Integrase
Amino acid sequence: MLVTFASEPAHPDRPNEDFVGATPDAVVLLDGAGDPAGLESGCSHSVSWYSRTLGSTLLTELTRHPGSLAEIFASGIRQVASLHEHTCDLLHAGSPSATAVMLRRTGDTLEWLVLADSVLVLDLGTAEPTVVCDDRLDAVAAPHHALLAGLRYGSPEHAQARREFIETLRTYRNRDGGFWVAAVDPLAGEHALTGSAPIDAVRAVALLSDGASRLADRFALATWRQILDLLAHDGPAGLIRRVREAERSDPYGERWPRGKIFDDATACYLALPRAHAG
């Protein structure tokens, strides 16, 4: 597999809470769930610490663990929880968390796992790519968007409403009828979306944090096919440049209402050799 990736923080002076890493046969992309200032997490560690620690743990497990991706994912969550269970309140609803996309080549098969709103796009040689995204978070959040409606981004009223919005979503996190993310409960592995395809059927794959996928799924400035073409021609950094141009064109979220005007953006692109692409 030929793997290229790029990752950029929302703001140069703030930590990037995304993680991406690869081995010759596997890729992990995590999007840490950063919260607004003023919300407690019960944890002394940052979201970027969580995403980087979990991401590196998962990559290590993928190189030595023969189990399913769901099992590896659960094991990674369990291991990271053990690193701070004696110093932090892991029962707190705001403990650090992340979305996830994992990809692994095993023999002649490409396997994947997706949890929460990061996106996996597969070019299987059909007219339209196959898009895998766990939309449970969006479904839970939709009825509560009224909290932010009509409020100008950057205003004190918007900041307060966003804190209330996040606090509301926390009550749905990692429970039945809500949505699942990587946090402290290894049961999240059982709730992830998983699948596989013969590697000969796969031409290319994109793994995108929601800060990179927003060019298609929030801004509607590109189709998923165009996203794959952009990645093939301009690379992951080119996709992120396009996202930043769109974000800068709407500095107050008036054209595209969103909780974050700029978001951490991470894109990973895998081109499968033609010998494996059919």
